[in-house]
Structure formats: structure tokens, C-alpha cells
Amino acid sequence: MGQNKNAPHEVIKKHLVKGQKLDLTKDNPAVDQIHIGLGWDLAGQPIDLDTQVFFFK
């Protein structure tokens, strides 16, 4: 909030498997924005897509 929307930002891509947890602040404790994108192959196997994000400050 209040930041320049055109300011450069770091993009980190992670591929997770079912049940895997990811600490988003481990390498960057000052993170204040997170954008999450989900994707899957519709021609592949059936999917089970669940997403949870908790951010406490």
C-alpha cells in the first residue's frame, strides 16, 4: 500500500507438491506483498487444487 506500482519487484517462482509447505518470509522477512498464481494441465490427470495463505504481521 502506498508503494509505486511501477517499482521493480522480485519475482520468485516455486513449484509445490501436495502437502508441501513454503515459508515465504524465510529469505525475505520484510515481504509485504504476495501475488499467487495457480495453474494446471487440463489434459493431464484429475486435479485436487487447494490453496491456503496465512500472513500475519
UniProtKB/TrEMBL annotation:
<dbReference type="InterPro" id="IPR003325">
    <property type="entry name" value="TerD"/>
</dbReference>
<feature type="domain" description="TerD">
    <location>
        <begin position="15"/>
        <end position="56"/>
    </location>
</feature>
<protein>
    <recommendedName>
        <fullName>TerD domain-containing protein</fullName>
    </recommendedName>
</protein>
<dbReference type="Pfam" id="PF02342">
    <property type="entry name" value="TerD"/>
</dbReference>
